[in-house]
Amino acid sequence: MIAEVIVDIASGETDRIYDYLCGDETQAGSRVRVPFGGKVVPGFVMRLKETSDCPTEKLKRAFPCPDERPALNTECLALAGKLAARYRVPMALCLRLFLPSEMRAGKVRELKKNYASLLVPLSEMKLSRTAKNQIGAAEYLEKNGKTECGFLNGLFPGGVSALEKKGYVSVAKEQILRDPYKGMESASAEHVLTADQRAAVEKIKSDGRTVQLLHGVTGSGKTEIYLTLIAECLKEGKSSIFLVPEISLTPQMLSQLRARFGRNAAIMHSGLSAGEKFDEWWRMRSGEAKIAIGARSAVFSPLENLGVIIVDEEHDSSYSSETAPRYNTFDVAYLRAKHNGCKLVLGSATPAVDTYKRAVDGEFNLIRLDKRINQKPLPEITIADMRREVRRGNNSAFSSVLKDELGKCLSEGNQAILFLNRRGYSQTVICKECGYVAKCEACDVSLTYHKDEDCLKCHYCGAKYRVPTVCPDCGGHKLSYAGTGTQRIVADLQKLYPSAKILRMDNDTTSGKEGHYKILKAFGEKRADILVGTQMIAKGHDFPSVTLVGILDADMSLHFSDYRSGERTFQLITQVAGRSGRAEEKGRVVLQTFSPENDVLRYAVAYDYEGFYRNEISLRAATMFPPFSKIVRVLVTGEDNKKTVEALRNVYFSLERLYTENAEKFLFFNKMHAPIKRIQNKFRYQVLMRLADTSVLPSVYDACAAARTRDVLVSVEENPTNLS
Ligand code: ADP
Ligand code: ZN
Questions:
Q1: Can you tell me which atom of ligand 1 is nearest the CA of 192?
Q2: Which of 189, 587, 609, 646 could share a disulfide with 379, CB 3.0–4.6 Å?
Q3: How far apart are CA 724 and CA 719, in angstroms?
Q4: Alpha-carbon span 524 to 252, nearest angstrom
């Protein structure tokens, strides 16, 4: 047989099929090792065939890898091909997405241990009465069945091997799969669906469209709907993929899933060791586990016969990949849903504007859940006008309303969450007296302060502005560039409430395995009164004693220099507010802002998603931002400035030609420094485009693939979440 092999080298030059001779054990999807350019390199078998265009005597032989079955199934092979074509990246890069990194590195072997089983009942064994260890081991085996030898030897030294010699016991090596969730099961009850939930499940199943958008307010019981869909698939012998933002995989969530699906579920999260991830992956590939649960990379799970794919919190920015290939999880999920003829269910309380438009337009089926399960009203949101606080001489991070509410909350023995919208957000200039924010005259997005050049810049057109020293609107002098960090907030809070126990959760405190689980667990067990954190506390956690949520700086995301800042702000406020008053106590939310009359905030306070959407979509239409256009950034990065500039020149040259030939399809086109000129010693340049018509997109990808060199990365980002 002849195998068509893709060598596992991420380079454009080697991105083609090579023919090798192979044996019968080799199948499509098998991993092999092949002689290549004087070395032996790993590769993947894409297809088998009888003959090659190359004379047989010239073909080299591929060595099979000792996998129990091909690492990649046929669906994964097909999907990798589609992704490679869509994102114009080497096939090897796409194939890698489907494998656990450990498998490629070859580091982790399957863990095998010796297991003993009885061959003869104890009553029929002829054992001396003094052979205590043999008797002990035999008794144990009779009572408990097959047992790991190391464990038995600890209890009854030498017993098993003596029994084995006599032929009473057989010992065999078996692969044991690490079980990272051992002991995590809680007695979480399966709920009987409410009528609304049942109706939603039926609508999802009966509708003919592939994509189903479940728009349900926080606490409307979306999770239970997902779990029901998964359970029904399982009953029919079908598998499912359930994607969640990493941050939602809380201990509560894990134990709930474990209780519900046991070993049928493979749960992938960042806290697992490499070996544990490998085992979970293998359990799916071998068919033992039929449910994949995890963050975006779980969309590549090696499951077959999918019955449903679910994307929870579909608006979450973690669903787009920031490394090559920069795939969009939705696109991959959609391809898999189509391939399997199954439904793709998107769920959110605050769908992305783009997604919602497609639902409103009828492309996706829209299902609404307007009521919370417990019939409780959503917590009331009070706006605190920080301009007034400043005028009254309060320059602290806490408004008087928030201080009052905090005092009340703590004295009643309840818990509070204070949310600081800082991490990863660039600095903008804001007037603390009137709420003025510097904006780009051409693009109507907020400007970002750049310390190195001491100027303000628009990230969408590159325009530079002088930094004002007095507020252009009110003439005030209290211009602020930076928010306060979580550490400062905690220190200030401690002064205000000396006896309160305060926990901090941000990127600094959550490093390491289970970093944020520990903090959330401590807070959930009421070992602290106040939790201060960044957006990572906004999602998914259920703390029944939290009655107060404070959003300290709602403006920070509102004026983030991104066309989606309104959308992000609405999502964040809704989500954060959902943390308050989940159980018996009525919840309260205090939202601090310098622009209380802002439309987005007004809709958020009223929990009016529809109103927000109508407002936002008309804004986007007027300014021609997505979904009415597509923002495309070509990012050119490299360590050698000269080579990087050369690659930029090359790609710019072909893109410019594309632009002049198709000017009517472009709303904007220019090359410039990336907003951050150097990251990790790499020089960064970009060509920024806004396309009115995406028919030129494949040519953009082609131009980038052609300009890529060994030393310079040229990548394409579509509607990037982060323009830095
Ligand atoms: P969402 O994901 O829409 O925010 P959840 O799925 O977290 O909502 O559900 C909110 C709460 O309601 C959870 O505590 C959940 O256990 C509970 N719940 C969900 N469905 C039911 C039901 N059918 N009966 C009783 N309680 C339910
Ligand atoms: Zn601009």
A1: 23
A2: 587
A3: 13
A4: 10
Residue 108: the pLDDT is: 44
Given a cut of 90, whether residue 72 has pLDDT beyond it is yes
Distance 571 CA to ligand 1 centre (A): 20
Residue 642, judged by CB atoms within 10 A of its CB (0-12, 13-18, 19+), counts as exposed
Q: Indicate which atom in ligand 1 lies nearest the CA of residue 222.
A: 3
The ligand that comes nearest to the alpha carbon of residue 575 is 1
What's the whole-model pTM score? Answer: 0.82
162 φ, ψ (degrees, to nearest 5): -65, -40
How many C-beta neighbours within 10 Å does residue 74 have?
14
Lowest average pLDDT, out of 121-135, 508-522, 650-664, goes to 508-522
- Pocket residues: Cβ below 6 A from ligand 1: 191-194, 197, 216, 218-224, 373, 542
* Ligand 1 atom with least separation from CA of 216: 3
Confidence check: pLDDT of 567 > 60: yes
Q: What is the pLDDT of residue 377?
A: 81
Residue 706 CA to residue 92 CA, distance in Å, equals: 17
Q: At what angle do helices 222-235 and 195-206 cross, to 10 degrees?
A: 50
Nearest CA to ligand 1 atom 9: 221
> Which residue's CA is the closest to the ligand 1 atom numbered 10?
219
The pLDDT score that the predictor gives to residue 187 is: 55
Q: Which residues contact 624 (CB under 8 A, 6 or more apart)?
A: 667, 690, 692
- Per the CB < 8 A criterion, the answer to whether 270 and 563 are in contact is no
Which pLDDT does position 583 carry in this prediction?
62
pLDDT given at position 423: 44
Q: What is the mean pLDDT of residues 552-563?
A: 70
Q: Rounded to the nearest whole angstrom, what is the distance from the C-alpha of residue 406 to the centroid of ligand 1? A: 28
Best residue among 191, 214, 372 to mutate for probing ligand 1's pocket (most ligand atoms within 8 Å of CB) is: 191
Q: Which two tokens stand for residue 614?
A: 């109508």
From ligand 1's centre to the CA of 372, what distance in Å?
A: 8
Q: Dump pLDDT digits (tens) for 171-209.
A: 887 766 566 656 555 555 678 999 999 999 999 999 999
Atom 24, ligand 1: residue with shortest CA distance: 191
- The three-class DSSP label of residue 353 is helix
DSSP codes, 627-696: TSSEEEEEEEEESSHHHHHHHHHHHHHHHHHHHHHTGGGEEEEEEEEEEEEEETTEEEEEEEEEES-GGG
- 370 Cα: distance to centroid of ligand 1 (angstroms): 13
Closest CA relative to residue 418, chosen from 396, 394, 435, 388: 396
Measured in Å, residue 373 CA sits from the centre of ligand 1 at 6
